[in-house]
TrEMBL record:
Record's protein name: Carbonic anhydrase
Organism field: Vogesella amnigena
SUPFAM superfamilies, per the entry: beta-carbonic anhydrase, cab
Family: Belongs to the beta-class carbonic anhydrase family.
Secretion signal span: none
InterPro entries the UniProt entry points to: Beta_CA_cladeB, Carbonic_anhydrase, Carbonic_anhydrase_CS, Carbonic_anhydrase_sf
Catalysed conversion reaction: hydrogencarbonate + H(+) = CO2 + H2O
Keywords: Lyase, Metal-binding, Zinc
Pfam families given in the database record: Pro_CA
Gene3D superfamilies: Carbonic anhydrase
Amino acid sequence: MEKLIEGIHQFQSGVFGQQRALFQRLSEGQAPEAMFITCSDSRVVPSLMTQSGPGDLFMLRNAGNLVPPYGPLHGAESAAIEYAVMVLGVKDIIVCGHTHCGAMKAVLAPDSLARLPATRHWLTYAEATRQLMESHYQALPDAKRLETCVEENVLVQIENLRTHPAVLAGLSRGTLKLHAWVYDIASGDVLVFDAAAGQFVPIAELS
Ligand SMILES: [Zn+2]
């Protein structure tokens, strides 16, 4: 905790003073560039990797960057998505998975969750990912399997996003776009799903 408290002192005596006008403006409201859905993993720092600042990204984070499909049990995810699209009017939603994801490791090894009932329940929202991995990618070596699982899961969650009425409406109006990304922790690379090519490509190569 000491490190965090020291950080607050530094923030208040340094950064905040230098950007006082920005924070004053933000106190009047937010108009974020995009909604960013990613994993809770501490190694994923969206504002750092996109070099964005306060007010730029409307964030939704959970273990495995999962998006429960829309349904009668409106959870935190549904509310955040609805608010982002209907109230804030975000034009883009990014689902960003990442390499070495613990949640995806657990999807590939469900037995490891015997003592974690809440996690096991939560990861049922990645059940389509698990089934896809079981039916198509059993033969891959472990590291490649995890990499593929991360990518497939991002695409599964994009499909889940489409079940949310606000998202569907935005897509049909042409005012909303969905983006599937994977962040590589070791290299800093960001891969983006290129629908035309049917695969993830480095973001710089996206046509
Ligand atoms: Zn993760």
